[in-house]
Amino acid sequence: MGKVDDDPVGTFRYLKNENNQEQTVTAFLLEFEHAEPVIQSFRNPTWFPVDKALEALAEDRGDRYAEEFRSLIEKAVGRVGVGARAAGGGRT
């Protein structure tokens, strides 16, 4: 459990698999101390350092979508602070 920031970091778009329609998601920072077990069996949350997150989020996405993720992550890292960039963690 954690606390969600009131102000969104930004948005990103993706193509939803079953109908290939473009979806827009508003992203918020989440401050947390520990993660709870996942309720939905189809989800597999994975934590990455920033550089690895950028690589993983670019996989199998067009350049436009990958660039949106890169920009969003850079904004989030800027809001969290430089320490999170080096450690790959903190508020995510």
From the spread of the alpha carbons, the general shape counts as globular
N-to-C span:
13 Å
Strand content: 15-25%
Largest sheet: 2 strands, antiparallel
Mean of residue pLDDT values: 83
Pattern of helices and strands: EEEEHHH
The number of helical runs is 3
List its traits.
92 residues, alpha+beta, disordered C terminus, 3 helices
Short structural description:
It contains three helices and four strands, in the order E-E-E-E-H-H-H. It is α+β, with helices and mostly antiparallel strands and about 90 residues long.
Q: What does the model show?
A:
The protein is an alpha+beta fold and 92 residues long. The protein has one domain. The protein has helices spanning 50-58, 63-80, 82-87; strands spanning 2-4, 10-15, 22-27, 30-32. It has a two-stranded antiparallel sheet with strand order 1-4. Strands 2-3 form a two-stranded antiparallel sheet. A hairpin with a 6-residue loop joins β2 and β3. α1 (50-58) runs antiparallel to α2. It is globular and about 35 Å long.
Topology (SSEs and partners):
Blueprint: E1 2-4, E2 10-15, E3 22-27, E4 30-32, H1 50-58, H2 63-80, H3 82-87
Antiparallel strand pairs: 1-4, 2-3
Helix pairs in contact: 1-2
